[in-house]
Amino acid sequence: MTHKPFLIGPFTQILTLAGLPLKGALKDDQLECLAHAGIRVRAGVIEAVGPFTPMEKQALREGLEVIQITEKAVVAPGWVDAHTHTCFAGSRARDYALRNSGSTYLEIAATGGGIWDTVRQTRKAPESSLEDRIVERCRKFAADGVTTLEIKSGYGLHSEGELKMLRAIEKAGRRTGQDLVATCLAAHMVPRDFSGTPEAYLDSLVNDLLPVVKSEGLAPRVDIFVEESAFTPDQALAYLKKAAAMGFDLTVHADQFTTGGSRVAIQSGARSADHLEASGPKEVQALAESGVIAVALPGASLGLGCGYTPARALLDAGAALAIASDYNPGSAPMGDLIAQASILGASEKLSNAEVLAGVTFRAAAALGLTDRGTLAPGSRADFNIYHTEHYNEITYHQGQLKPHSVWKDGRSILEAKAEGHD
Ligand code: NIG
Ligand code: FE
Predict the structure, then answer these.
(1) Domain made up of 80-366: CATH architecture
(2) 296 CB less than 6 Å from ligand 1?
(3) Is residue 158 within 8 Å of 191, Cβ to Cβ?
(4) Ligand 1 pocket, residue 279 CB under 6 Å
(5) CATH number of 6-78+374-415
(6) Protein residue with its CA nearest to atom 1 in ligand 1
(7) Which of 93, 308, 352, 357 is the most buried (most CB within 10 A)?
(8) What is the distance in A from the centroid of ligand 1 to the CA of 97?
(9) Span between the terminal Cα atoms of the chain, in Å
(10) Residues 199-240: pLDDT tens digits?
């Protein structure tokens, strides 16, 4: 397919998200918003952003295609969902019902629910069916304006199952319009059918699984769940050190129910510490002083009916805060990033600048990506066009205002049939 350069506009507002710091609190008046402006794209990358009228004259002089926007429209960067478990089989609706009726995590796990239930179902699913499910779920993410998403393994928990998941993610990535970033979460829990110690299980990953993941280029990142039900901080640190030495980027499921994981993330030099619902002032301060991105997962709080990550405290302390959906069949089955980020904003008193930074360039940074998340020259041409007059409408509708069209690398990957809200 050819990739002809073009100019698109005029937009009522271009919300660039450019020029903002990676860390710390943000005020809405720091947001750059260009009125009656256009975006010029070449080879999937933004070449220029600015006032539409002179850009249009220049484009016409150069014989460039001009895509006219004839309605009120706000354009924002494509959303980045930096933490999902989109590759899985089966449903855990029963867990949800039992939890809401008062059963504990341990009771649910003891009666066949929990992560292990999804492991059993995912192990049974053929790779091609996992691939199809990812592609289908990515269509929904596209309708929500998500142009880059991370997807973890972690429901295989043996080499064969983990590699099947990672290969399904890779193949799905060739079919979806979005960029998929794979993460190996073989250290999600000690599999119930593994007879050795947790250390022996982690060693088996280092010796048998990670070398294949590396040599086949299946995932650039490694994750571990640090929790009483999974791995201790010491076990995690030793594992992550070995994974780093093999050249993997690191991320940690940290401080979800008990603390300890965020310290592991900092000490191992991880890019991000995700969850943090249990983080207290000490953890918040340490994260703020580190180079680790704090990733809030409000979808897990909504799914489990528990408190949110202390996002306000993290930002005020000076941390970098990203917001991701954690889409998974157990704790976060909703998977609507903008709905969740908006609700987190209302609950934690985050400015729109903080919410939107959390799902754009700060989320990209959590994945080690610096080429997206802003509408600025040099960024990938990933953007969402909303048929509305003001960017404040996006969080105001708490996920119900969907983009009219979604662009990835300068190509439209979704055109909505229905109109958005006014
Ligand atoms: O991020 N916390 C651990 N892992 C997932 C839940 C996975 C599951 O319950 O299937 C999470 O919430
Ligand atoms: Fe998760």
Answers:
(1) Alpha-Beta Barrel (3.20)
(2) no
(3) yes
(4) no
(5) 2.30.40.10
(6) 326
(7) 357
(8) 17
(9) 35
(10) 999 999 999 999 999 999 999 999 999 999 899 999 999 999
